[in-house]
Amino acid sequence: MHCFTHQDVEAVGVCKACYKGLCTQCASDLGLGLACKGEHEQFVEATNALLSRSIRISSINKHGSFVVPGFYAFLGAAFLLSGIITKTKASPFSIAMGCGFVVFAIITLVANRKAWAK
Question: What are the sequence ranges of the domains in the chain?
Fold first, then answer.
């Protein structure tokens, strides 16, 4: 591959923003990627920072996959209990809501486990 600007020079890499071939004169090495010198450096730096933050947050939040399903399970249990333990008669609406929240908690837990396993 040749440099996009200097067609007679071999490219050393590709710009992370525009994917054009870059020679040593045109490339700005930003550590985690190359950028067109003077053109895409800010964009590539912002992209690298975003990627680094995302990796850091996902490594910190490994147990976060249990928080949302746990909350839904808690809501389901609360609705089920309030539907069953009423002084007059069982509330079909509360029981249905409780069952719905418990099922949704299970679905969310399974989906999160699959997502975090990758």
Answer: 13-60, 62-117
Separation in Å, CA 115 to CA 36, 66, 104, 110: 35, 12, 16, 9
Radius of gyration of the CA atoms of the chain, in A: 26
77 in helix, strand or coil? Answer: helix
In eight-state DSSP terms, residue 63 is: G
Give mean pLDDT, residues 13-18.
92
* Residue that wins the pLDDT comparison between 14 and 56: 14
Question: Residues 6 or more apart from 50 whose CB is under 8 A from it?
Answer: none
Of 7, 45, 43, which is closest to residue 26 (Cα–Cα)?
A: 7
Q: What is the pTM of this model?
A: 0.51
- Which residue has 């928080």 as its token pair? 67
